[in-house]
UniProtKB/TrEMBL annotation, chains A, B, C, D:
GO MF annotations, alphabetized: nucleotide binding; oxidoreductase activity
Originating organism: Pseudomonas eucalypticola
Source organism superkingdom: Bacteria
Regions that span the bilayer: none
Name this polypeptide is given: Gfo/Idh/MocA family oxidoreductase
Lineage: Bacteria, Pseudomonadati, Pseudomonadota, Gammaproteobacteria, Pseudomonadales
Keyword Transport applies: no
Amino acid sequence: MRELGIGLIGTGFMGRAHALAFRNVSAAFELPVNLRLAALADADPQRGAECARAWGFTTAHSDWQRLIDDPAVHLVAITTPNHLHFPMAMAALAAGKAVYCEKPLAVSLEQAEHMHRAAQAAGVVTRVGYNYQHNPIIERARQMIRGGELGQIISFDGEFCEDFMADPAAPWSWRCEPSHAGGALADLGSHLLAMARFLIGDVQAVCADSQTVHGQRPAAAGSSERKAIVIDDHTQALLRFANGARGTFSSSWLKHGYKNHLSFEISGTLGTLSFDQERLNELRLCRAGREGFERILAGPTLPGYAAFSPAPGHQLGYNELKTLEVHELLMAVAGQGQAGTDFAEALAVERLAAAIRVAAREERWVQVETVQAKGR
Amino acid sequence: MRELGIGLIGTGFMGRAHALAFRNVSAAFELPVNLRLAALADADPQRGAECARAWGFTTAHSDWQRLIDDPAVHLVAITTPNHLHFPMAMAALAAGKAVYCEKPLAVSLEQAEHMHRAAQAAGVVTRVGYNYQHNPIIERARQMIRGGELGQIISFDGEFCEDFMADPAAPWSWRCEPSHAGGALADLGSHLLAMARFLIGDVQAVCADSQTVHGQRPAAAGSSERKAIVIDDHTQALLRFANGARGTFSSSWLKHGYKNHLSFEISGTLGTLSFDQERLNELRLCRAGREGFERILAGPTLPGYAAFSPAPGHQLGYNELKTLEVHELLMAVAGQGQAGTDFAEALAVERLAAAIRVAAREERWVQVETVQAKGR
Amino acid sequence: MRELGIGLIGTGFMGRAHALAFRNVSAAFELPVNLRLAALADADPQRGAECARAWGFTTAHSDWQRLIDDPAVHLVAITTPNHLHFPMAMAALAAGKAVYCEKPLAVSLEQAEHMHRAAQAAGVVTRVGYNYQHNPIIERARQMIRGGELGQIISFDGEFCEDFMADPAAPWSWRCEPSHAGGALADLGSHLLAMARFLIGDVQAVCADSQTVHGQRPAAAGSSERKAIVIDDHTQALLRFANGARGTFSSSWLKHGYKNHLSFEISGTLGTLSFDQERLNELRLCRAGREGFERILAGPTLPGYAAFSPAPGHQLGYNELKTLEVHELLMAVAGQGQAGTDFAEALAVERLAAAIRVAAREERWVQVETVQAKGR
Amino acid sequence: MRELGIGLIGTGFMGRAHALAFRNVSAAFELPVNLRLAALADADPQRGAECARAWGFTTAHSDWQRLIDDPAVHLVAITTPNHLHFPMAMAALAAGKAVYCEKPLAVSLEQAEHMHRAAQAAGVVTRVGYNYQHNPIIERARQMIRGGELGQIISFDGEFCEDFMADPAAPWSWRCEPSHAGGALADLGSHLLAMARFLIGDVQAVCADSQTVHGQRPAAAGSSERKAIVIDDHTQALLRFANGARGTFSSSWLKHGYKNHLSFEISGTLGTLSFDQERLNELRLCRAGREGFERILAGPTLPGYAAFSPAPGHQLGYNELKTLEVHELLMAVAGQGQAGTDFAEALAVERLAAAIRVAAREERWVQVETVQAKGR
């Protein structure tokens, strides 16, 4: 069995989530590769060493290029801030290594297009961390939709809102910078756009509206210095899918009471289905002819769930979605995967987000395919 | 105390709802008028006579013009099919009588404009039956919004969907005819547009999309003859309110599982509030600083509720919303009311719906005020 | 058609609820009697006269015995405080008149037994106001149970809790007096016991526990004088039904957050069904073989609902349950009814409540049928 | 730092859950010990070897006694069928090793008492797998209760029901045998009893009722041979806590629609709090003075949650509760823990369950402390 050395860049929230996932995946699944936690990179050598020990990585590098060059590393996982995705992924592709990059793919459509072309040229497996798609109950929803159980799809109404920026005293951060892919649309909305594509398919045209509600924020927590804010606090859009379905979209980080409300409702001629990431183990479904909505709890009839528990109602957590994402990635690397969320797909998500930006700025319907790199 | 004779036209669902409301209102409230159920009109003399007896009306007419001319009638309530609203209301206004007309005001923007001008000229009280506004818990929501409890309003996301046309075998009816104000937008959506205006205020601009999913339907139940359908099964829109708030709107009568899902969520800088007409005695509210959404049940601290029950959690029903609407009407007739949903306001709702139609047809943002009668 | 004159005693909350119901019933139903609102009694002549006028009663009496003796009165409706139910009902029965008495039937088991015997001797129709049973969706639940749709009934778990006495500063009232049928068990719990009997059938044996949490309360609102409280704030019980089903029961008026939470869940070999009076237009049902609970909204397929609305999801309110109760009463008076909640049934409810009191006091299982009048 | 070698017996559902937890715990926490996955035992040598490799254990034994004797093993984790808990734990204690045993502690009260005495004599750390207590939001509930935020506790109403035995064709298994601690009370209910003790405290007295609904089941799936069933399908009880609170308890494995419905509601003089294991990341809370119930989502202000995610609403899964349990165990082994669910506490749970059995059989209230080993 092929040996696969993992090189992980970054030790923050997402770094640890990746580390947990790579550790768990071999206990949860029979793997098609011989997985090695080869190397970890963090600019701070001490932190790198500590995390490597705690998480079971063989080596720690303080220079990420050294990790990429490390011959024990066959797959590079990138969990650094958004603006570093581009140089790291390009270097890894240049080194002919598989790349697993956190979302968003890049901080501009131009970067994303470059990365996609480089990935095509390199011919390696790439994946981008749209982990919510790996929820087994989402996979079931997708199969229902693709298999016709909901009939012709009429509409997809989606919303992703949280409240972590609702307080006007919440300070400026890189999430407020366009150059770092900040804003509610990029930070939250892109997850929902990826989900819409995953479940329904291509979006052809969009019309949109954005607003910045809090035009300035403290430069830092508690600071009296104010920084001007130009990114969107709230964006909404109408969507036209290639298959004829229509959709509404909204994304906000100002909505009190929501913590992770990636939610949608899909209406088809044979049923209605809804989901809320805040209750990630549930679907709500009403089939034609039934009296009302039925609550469906995830259980071991879903393969991804069965990998973790033989009993329904026991519930998976966020980190297990990440483990399922890693499993899909490893299957792909072993040549046993299916089409996944690779750089091509992540570029399509970025292009859709860019089209929404253009539509909002120019106050008109925009054909998604016409949006090119300079669109941002 | 002034005597007020009620003349009711129509004995269908809405006719009976009006009759129940006029009967209940004097038991629930101290009225500023001496209410008389003077006359009922139905084209079928036998049905008219039976309903008049059962519902307590003094006289029955088979010709509605006779009811309008009846000197015992001071207020004309119109519950007939939509295309009859115009001639009946115009006749009542010409006779100088107050008019209480079911929604929609008319079947064209042109008619609605005429009716509004006639009402202004007549100088009488007019009301249109957007009864969902008369829910005491909606009144509370409005006071919260108007009083600043939610802070600056960021968004209004509303949906009105039902499933009564979801079955493609559901036959053609007048609701499928543009000439009778058919379609999901006019039939359902107008309630939601009226609610959006009631709670948030004027809408300045809209962008929209409509679709007809079932392009033909049986000419009658079980018939093999098919009629082509051109009205919308589903319409969605983006809204820009005059106060800067943004909104999404959707309306569908094809959505399995919903029976009366007029729902909305309002996001403000100080809180989030949501409502669903299928649970009309509840609000869901998260104030800034609270951990999550709180469920609020209607109770007797709300004046309209106290008129019916001294105990919270006992719940009002649809017919009591109608009774509250009638009470507001009677207060207005007695000169003790506030601004209500009169013909001017109903015209504004029609203009907004017309703007959505134009925006969908012409695939562009439309300024609502620019839409004139020929817009339809 | 027989003329039926109604005499209503009491003008409080329940008096008005009765008045509204008697007014509504003829608009909602074709009645088998010619209903007349003959007389109203209130000890305060002015209030009696005002209410009679507002509610449409022909006459007002300040002496309730005069109302009972009034030859225009054929049915006596009793809505006075609990301790007056006995003398009023006994007088009405002595006069050979039908009696519609609010719950509880009486303030002691001894009284209740006397009233039952007097009703049997008089041979008139009697009804007691357990109005929650007249909810159309409860009638559907009952038919499901009786028709075997849930299979063999395994358990009935019921709870009726509110929070109106949760504040220790809530003052003493007659509801705190055993001699007035006070306490959480009598005031709230008896509704739930009546519901358990209505849906499942006779209870054979009970075991129970009661507690008084707030042993004294202000003598009046804001008073510094304290009165000792001996009735139960909270009572819980185990139930054994004659058909083999088991049950848990609890009743509290100290439970923060609940306003009218008469709720139950019934488990059968073919399904689980649950209900909450705070959402009175809904059932939650999971049939064997289904994935999860389905929400069922009341609609016009339920006859009692159709009397008020032709559209599902529009919802009935509390007062309409009362109207349905009055309709059932009038059908019974006309000889067209079925077995209803008459004095015999209300006595059975009282006996069951008394058995729970004995079981709690004596800390043992009690056979319900062995509890006789001195049991309290 | 002390080295701690883990020996895990069993490779079924619970074996894997333990393995995942031991693997995850060092990535999620800074540990006070140097954790080694020393040995795995499974009677089937091939399965043992495979699982050891996949899960990262150094050695595999086919004889569990060898694992206990292995000097590299300092802590023995027991995940075998219930009837093996006793011999394995006794052997591990005899060897002076810490023991982490799955629930129930034993299959008889006599065994449990022996195990408790042996643990006391050995002076080692013991833990029993009542993992639901390790939910961070449950820890918060406990702190609220213990800290007085809910005031004086009035009631604890708990239910644990599932539907995995609801189908009468579900075959006999060891879960149907009293000698293997089968039945709804032992299998499910004991989790709820442990939770009641964890949150509220000692139970002094109980009254109870049990029923076997399906008196026989197929001997195996699809078999026409029938085996008689004597254990309980459904048990309910009244509880009296030492602190004066009262409670209802029920447990069923026949309740259609439920998958893991360990749920409870706690009423206190200052608030009501409820929880459902099927939505393990949520509490529902109504504080005195608030209008209604608030939904609280788990987030990183809860230490156990923060170990896995820095963002609220992302949700923990069942396996992470197990990891938290293992963390608490490791802290205890390192002498840094607090009182946990050791053999003494697990014995108290068993005694409480035994008291419920006695109360049901003898149809009387039973003082829990009087129940000794022969009680079963």
